[in-house]
Each structure stands twice: as structure tokens, then as C-alpha cells.
Amino acid sequence: MLTTEPTAEREIRSTPPAGSATERFLAIASAVDCAARGGGRRKLEVGGNDQLARLAHNVNQLFDLVQERRDDGDAAALRELEASNTRLEYLIANTPAIIYSSVPTGDFKMTFVSANAARVLDYQPEEMLADPNFWFEHIHPEDIPRIFSSLAQIFSEGQRTYEYRFRTRDGRYLWMHDSLRLIRDSAGNPLEIIGSLTDITDRKTMEEALQRKGDEQQALIEKLQQAQAQLLQSEKMASIGQLAAGVAHEINNPVGFVNSNMGTLCKYVETLFGVVQKIEELALAGDCGARNQALLQQIREDADLEFLKEDTVQLVRESMEGLTRVTHIVQSLKDFSHVGEIDWQFADLHHGLDSTLMIAANEIKYKARVDRQYGKLPLVKCLASELNQVFMNLIVNASQAIRGSGVITISTECRGKQVTVTIEDNGEGIPAENLGRIFNPFFTTKPVGQGTGLGLSLSYNIVAKHGGRIDVQSEPGLGTRFVITLPVDGPTGSGT
Hints:
- This protein is an alpha+beta fold.
- The protein has 4 domains: 1-94, no CATH class; 99-199, PAS domain (Beta-Lactamase, 2-Layer Sandwich); 222-338, no CATH class; 341-496, Histidine kinase-like ATPase, C-terminal domain (Heat Shock Protein 90).
- Helices cover 53% and strands 17% of the residues.
- It has a 5-stranded antiparallel beta sheet with strand order 2-1-5-4-3, sandwiched between helices. A 5-stranded mixed beta sheet has the order 7-9-10-12-11.
- Helix 2 runs antiparallel to helix 3, helix 9 runs antiparallel to helix 11 and helix 14 (384-401) runs antiparallel to helix 16 (455-465).
- The chain is rod-shaped and about 170 Å long.
- The two termini are 87 Å apart.
């Protein structure tokens, strides 16, 4: 019950009850509470025509009435004021927000708590007032630093709002919206702090649900983007493979007849030089006269016949070797692409590595020497063209990691029902902070325009698709090792 005691009248400076309904209600409650505790009457500004405005007007009238009749002790006026106070107590106790006040000192000890604290927090106002540290002891530990860091600003700004978690009696934390307001006396000195605690747990729960939904949608969008980018990369590699196979087929035809013609030409040259030799032998054995013999000798010297015999044979041999190399490159293009092979088949990984090295030779030969340490491997059930893409990505990356000249070591081993392919370089290595991100889509340390950041991500997915794994070890300045582990019989469900 709010009561008033005769006391010396003193005016208190107050901000008019304008703004939100909560702020206006807090101003009225603070004025009544201040008067009830003998703090003097507070003139309330009345604005508008709503219920709060009428309540402020009635409070002002009551204050005037009490002031007029206080000296003669009019019992009726006191009863009227008591009834009004009872009404105010009822309104404060049943408002959705918990109304409280505290001293404007560092500990912010509570001096008043409305009765609805029992309904919202399951604490009685008396026990909240009895403990000077009750407020801070029940705020979530993670929220306290944020509140403490700015609480002093209320003395310069006059008001503050916070959102934090407050512990109830049963140990749950409710999200509360706390609106604080500083009241000063007529001299400008801090008098008290009044606050309004509103339960916003439902709103926060909805916000968190929306945030989680947004995060899930964002993650889904990123996965779709990654899938799209990897699909485009796969399509690109498939197109390159198809183009390579087409080029290989087109090159095969002219290489075939040129190779055949070179073989025939080699026989013709041998026959031609045989005829020339026999003509020389017959001419020198017969009596063709000294003049004809000298002329024949001059022709041999002018034509440099001995050099032609030796060099022509060498040219034909080198041309045949060149054609053989072109044939191997063409075959490597066809083996690398495996166009038309969409089913799981048992393949020779060494053959795939060799064809990949042949295709990547121009990328490697000026920077690194390849050391092949092949073990004995069984045929592995796989999609050979996709594994060749993995080998290509790792070999090219190893070459690009080498500055100057270095060594790329490729080793293979069979361990029971699994095979391993290790591709190692002695290049620059990968910094520790990047090692855990190299398989992430779009992550690259290469300059703009020199890498998409999809090569290793695509390789990781291909190896996972084959039921295997890809591990990496690296140390800056010493190089990097990638180890691919694959099941010999392919992943479960790969077909027969």
C-alpha cells in the first residue's frame, strides 16, 4: 500500500511523460512512489487524451487535494488518496512489465520491485530487495560484461536499454528487455533509477529460429553454388577430354599414313643408295678411262655422297622416333579422356598416371624431374577418367609449387584391399593456417586469374565418390605430400 507522510514540500525535476507508453507509465509510477516515500510531490505534465494522460491528471489533482487538506488533517482526502494509491498499486502489479527502482550508485541496489515479479520470475519482491546483489547475480554471465561496459552512460544520457538473460527460480533463463531511466532532483543530482523489465523470450526464440532458418538457407545456397561450380568444372574437364579424344582421333589418321610412308621411304632410300653403290662399283671396275673416273669422283665429292648416305639414314630414323612420340601422345590423350566410359571398370592406375604425365609434360619438364616409384598394383575398380583428373590436378599443383627446379615423386603401394597413390614435391609447401582450407571450394592462394580454387575441392569429391580418402602433409619450405587411398573393389554400390 502506498502511503504519504507529511513532509517539507520540495519540487523534483521530471521529464514529461511523453514518448512510449512504458516511459509515461514509469514517470507516473515514479512520482507516486517518490511521494509515498516522503520525497515530495512531482508535478506531472499531462498530454494527450488516453488513459495514461487521464491517470496523470488524476494524480496531479490528488496531489493538489492532499496539499490543500494536509494541514487540517482531512480524513476524507487521505482516504481518497489511499484509494488512489491502491488503484496505482493494482495497475503496477498487473502491468506486463516488472517495474523497479534502484539507488543511483555503483551497486544499483533495488529499492522497489513490483509484485508481478512473482508471476514472471517466481521471486517475491521482498527477497529481491533484501539481497543488494540480486540483480547482477541473476543475469547470465555472458551478458554481464556488455551491461557493465555501458551502464555508467546512464548518468550522461539519462536512459539506457538492454536485452539480457535473467535466471528464474527454477534455473531457466528468460530474455528480458530492460528500459532504465535516471531521475534527478531540482538541483540536478541523481535521485533514483527506475526501470521496466519485459519478458521478450518468445520474441527472441522466434528471432533465433528465423536466424537458424536463414543460416540453413544460406548454407544451402552455398552448397548449391559449390555444386554448380563443381558441375561446371566437371563439364569443362569432360569437354576437354572429349576435345582431346577428338583431336587424338584426327591426328591419328595423318600420323598413321605418314608413319607408313616414312617406313616405305626408308626402304626406298636404302634401295636407292644400293643402286648408286653398284653403279660406282661397275664404273670403277670397267675401262671407262681416266677422264670418266675423274669426272665420277668429282660428282661424288660435289654431292657429298658419303654424308648424304649417313645423314639421310639418321634423318629417317629421327623422323620415325618423332612419329612414335606423337603416336604415344595421341594414345595418352585417348587414355586420359576415356571418352564414352561411364561405367565402373577395373583399370590400371599406373597407365593412368603415365598418360597424365605425358599430357602434363610441358607443364613439368622445365621445372621438375619426375621420380616414379611404382609398386605392384592390382587393377582398381574406378572411373578412370575422373581419377586422371585428380592425378592431373595434384601433379600440376606440385609443379606450380616448385620455384626453380625440383623433384616430383610419385609412388604407389598396395595394402591389402586398398591401394595408395602418393604425389610429393619439394616445393614451397602450404602454410599451417591454409592447410585446413585447401579442399574448400573457391579457396586459392594463386593470383587472380590463375586459379579458380576448385581443383582440390573437385579432387576431394572424386576420391570420396570412389570410397577413398585424400590426406595431405605439408611444411613450408620443405614441400607437400598428398596421399590418395582407394579401395581395390571400388565403393559399395558401384555395380559389377
